[in-house]
Amino acid sequence: MSLSPQRRFVTPEPDESIEQLAERALPGEPVAAAVDRIKSWNLHIFAMRRPPGLLLGGDVVFVEPPRR
Amino acid sequence: MMFDVLIRNGLVVDGSGEAGFAADVAVKDGRIAQIGRIDGPARQVIDAAGRVVAPGFIDPHTHFDVQLLWDGAARPALSHGVTSIVPGNCSLSLAPLRAADRPAVVGMFQQIEEMPPEAFTTAFDWTWEDFAGYRAAIERNLAINVAPLVGHSVIRQWVMGEAAQARAATPGEIAAMQDLLRECLQAGAVGLSTSFVDVDARGRPVPSRFAQFAELDALAAVLGEFGRMLQIVPEFYDTDLTIARIDQLAELSLRHGVPTTFSPVFDSASTPDNVPRTLARVEEQFARGARVWPQMQTRPIDISFSLLRPSLFFARLPSWIRVLRKPLDERIAALSDAETADRLVADVGPDGGARMMGELIVRGGDAAPTALAGRTLGEIAAERGESPARALITLSLEHGLDVAFLAANRGHDDTGRIGAMLAHPLVHIGASDGGAHLASFATYGDTGYLFSEFVRKAGALSLEQAVRKITADTADIWGFKDRGRLAPGLAADIVVFDPETIARGEERAVFDMPGDGMRYVRDAIGVDTVLVNGAVAYAGGAYTDARAGAVLA
User: Fold this and answer.
1) How far is Cα B53 from Cα B51, in angstroms, rounded to an integer?
2) Cα-Cα-Cα-Cα dihedral of B110, B111, B112, B116, to 10°?
3) How many cross-chain Cβ pairs, A to B, lie less than 8 Å apart?
């Protein structure tokens, strides 16, 4: 049985910054724009967390908006 | 043959899910000796006419880690028919843990599981550091069976020290964690627990959240050597995140041949597609051969609290938590300070707490005036000309903060929907959190509630299906090979109950814990007798002196 498409995500590499992650996840986009998009799709990291934006090794980082 | 115990004339519901049948059950040397019409003599005969005789219930998600050190029955869990429990969930366990790291981990238990720190410092001698030492400490006094998980956060803490909450592990550190996990599994741990949501007493993510997926993968490889369980707490407030975790668990399950489970899974009117989407993904992953068991509790979400101590109720109000963490005299002073009180009220929101606090019910039975018991805070606030948040503070101050409020039915309370979910063949009934959240809600009696609400009232499951869900299914999911069924040769973990009355009692406050002493409990209703490894551990409404519980390694 094939898996239905779900929201795509990546997990951080060791010591990876949000800028590096954004470049990896959204290649070809200007870094600043890619970071903004990543932030907007991951409020659990960039809005709810204290301190905001603290990237953890175990994080799920979505690389696209919600599908529904 | 002289049997030790003979349970006669009962309806045997053996855990298989098949229809119950009239039979006697004989017990000898801790095992079930015979099932059928049995005339042999026995040292103790129990008349079970009109009663169900079933395998002891298994609770796969508890935090009895510390309580077991002074209470080997995990009261009142055993009285509800629970004969086996799994502590060590959510990345936290009491071993392996160096003495110097105890305060930090106790703080995590306090923050995450709402357990008073005094419970860890006043009721027992903390002599061990390794897992074998913890096992030996609890084994001396067990009336209930214990299948302990080891926590990822404490394993990380042991290997990495303060860096456990700062960075990724090096390959050498991951190898050391693998060795340590292997040692714990050899000493009796039944799996590893981890968390993706929890924070410590200082609000920092717990150590397990700093782990790369590669670290979890390496630890799952060790679980695969033993065929043991991986338990996680996903970001249960978001369905997309939960599905991402399901997919990660599925990869680990397939790669290493391990069972995995995640909890909690809540239904809510505000997110009605959460459970359906979650279960759809679980079904897809099972179809691939992965084992990813969603754990679901039976009870609705009710939260009680007073301003005498921090509470889960204030989880999204850090300013309130900070005040409630102060010593009592400083806390009263802070709440009495007009500026502080104004800030707290403002932090609740522009509606003055009408939405969050207006429907709170004054519980009664404490320092609150009797006339207020059962009334809503919204009504009381209106009479006082205050906002609900302000009234919460002023009413509490007027009575030494000893005024308890109940936030009832805050989710997971639609019996029709929940019943269908619990009956789903892939839903693993559990997530009781037994032994935790002491001053927020009673984590006991979920099994009784399964029968009263979902078997008798809603008819969502048959009696036999419900028994199977919390006995044989649980044993199979966790690999407890001689538990969860009534059959000759298996361990004699048995509960005798009245199918017409089994239920959970009303939630009530008791003062039997170390430290500040208070917790909410629910008494068992309709449970006559509980046997653990062939010994009668509970009968006629009282615990016996039997200490036949074991670590289910």
Assistant:
1) 6
2) 20
3) 63
**B85-302+410-479+505-522, what's its fold?**
TIM Barrel (3.20.20)
Q: In sequence order, what are the residues at sequence separation of 6 or more whose Cβ sits closer than 8 angstroms to the Cβ of residue B376?
A: B358, B359, B360, B361, B362
pLDDT of residue B410: 86
Angstroms from B243 CA to nearest CA on chain A = 8
Tell me, what's the pLDDT at A52?
78
Distance, CA of B210 to CA of B204 (rounded, Å): 11
B245 near A CB under 8 A: yes
**How far B247 CA sits from the closest chain A CA (Å)?**
10
Tokens of B519: 């917790």
Q: With pLDDT > 90 as the criterion, what percentage of chain A qualifies?
A: 81
Among B212, B241, B318, beta carbon nearest to A14 = B212
* For B233, nearest residue in chain A (alpha carbons): A58
Structure token digits, residue B213: 């997926």
- For residue A1, the model assigns a pLDDT of 67
Q: What is the side-by-side strand order in the sheet with B405-407?
A: B303-305, B405-407, B361-362
pLDDT at B516: 63
Write down the domain spans for chain B.
85-302+410-479+505-522, 311-407
Given this model, what pLDDT does residue B12 score? 98
Note the pLDDT of residue B25. 98
CA distance B209 to A45: 12
Q: Locate B85 and state its tokens.
A: 């429990």
Q: Which percentage of chain B shows pLDDT scores above 70?
A: 100
pLDDT for B259 = 98
CB contact under 8 A, A6 and B235: no
Residue B23: what pLDDT?
Answer: 98
Nearest CA to B95 out of B208, B184, B206, B194 is that of B184
Other CB atoms closer than 10 Å to residue A60's CB: what's the count?
25
Q: How many CB atoms lie within 10 A of CB B18?
A: 10
Structure confidence by residue, pLDDT tens digits, A12-57 = 999 999 999 999 999 999 999 999 999 999 999 988 777 777 899 9
At residue B223, the 3 state secondary structure works out as: helix
Q: Does B210 touch chain A (CB under 8 A)?
A: yes
Residue at token pair 């799709």: A41
Which segments in chain B show pLDDT lower than 70? 516
B114: distance to nearest CA of chain A, Å? 20
Structural domain boundaries in chain A? 9-62
CB-nearest to A14 from B168, B244, B285 is B168
Indicate the helix (H) or strand (E) that contains B511.
strand B503-511
Q: Could you give the residue ranges of the DSSP H alpha helices within B310-365?
A: 318-324, 328-336, 338-348, 354-357
CB A25 within 8 A of CB A34: yes
